[in-house]
Write a structure and sequence with these properties.
By secondary structure, the protein is α+β, with helices and mostly antiparallel strands. It has one domain: minor pseudopilin epsh domain (minor pseudopilin epsh fold, 3-Layer(bab) Sandwich), CATH 3.55.40.10. Helix content is 32%, strand content 24%. It has 3 helices and 9 strands. A hairpin with a 6-residue loop joins strand 8 and strand 9. It is elongated, with a radius of gyration of 24 Å.
Length: 208
């Protein structure tokens, strides 16, 4: 008479234990994932709202505002600090053709005296009390300006809002984790900022 081989497999109780453990792991990770997604949405929303608000304030107050994006490089093996804040000029400053290049070079200088902006821009804390840091997993990849020949990929980029109602036409490129990417397109006449859930160059935006 042939012997029956013992049956190997999971019992119902073992399967339930495994499922319970997996459920616990998922439950623990959900608040972290949800928190990160909320922070990402909050940053994108704040940048888009800031643009419209700066456009309005520049016209009402008759002064130049600018959104400053600081794209610090990773030089120490640690995550670079990515910041943005708002600055305001002391008067109705009119931009000249070469001033942006001069301000950009000054912003890269480590000497505080040489790095001082000659147009006397100061941090405006009425809109953002202190420089805002991008949440973990997000970085400014580059900023494209219609008046700049090349995209700005490091240092500081300035998006100006003039009393005449004009705004620097710009595309702010932000990278997320894995393949996530966003483009914030800023309209030169209205200051309206559109958040697009994919990378689009300034040239592509203009052709649309």
């Amino acid at each position: 008479m042939r012997k029956l081989l013992p049956q190997h497999g999971f019992t119902l109780i073992e399967l339930m234990v495994v499922l319970a453990i997996m459920g616990g792991v998922v439950a623990l990770s959900m608040p972290y994932i949800g928190s990160r997604n909320s922070k990402t949405k909050a940053v994108l929303r704040e940048l888009s709202v800031l643009s419209r608000e700066l456009h309005t304030r520049a016209k009402l107050q008759g002064v130049v505002y600018r959104l400053v994006i600081d794209m610090q490089e990773d030089t120490s093996g640690k995550r670079p600090v990515q910041l943005y804040w708002v600055e305001k000029a002391n008067g109705g400053t009119v931009l000249k053709a070469n001033e942006e290049d001069e301000a950009f070079k000054a912003a890269q200088d480590k000497d505080p005296k040489k790095g001082k902006d000659p147009r006397a821009f100061e941090v405006d804390k009425s809109m953002i009390k202190k420089p805002r840091e991008l949440p973990q997993g997000m970085t400014f990849e580059k900023v494209e300006l219609s008046r700049a020949k090349d995209a700005i990929t490091h240092g500081r980029a300035f998006i100006h809002y003039l009393p005449q109602g004009l705004v620097d036409e710009a595309a702010i490129h932000i990278k997320g984790e894995k393949t996530a990417a966003w483009t914030i397109a800023i309209h030169p006449l209205t200051g309206k900022a559109e958040v697009i859930s994919k990378p689009l160059s300034l040239k592509e935006l203009k052709s649309q």
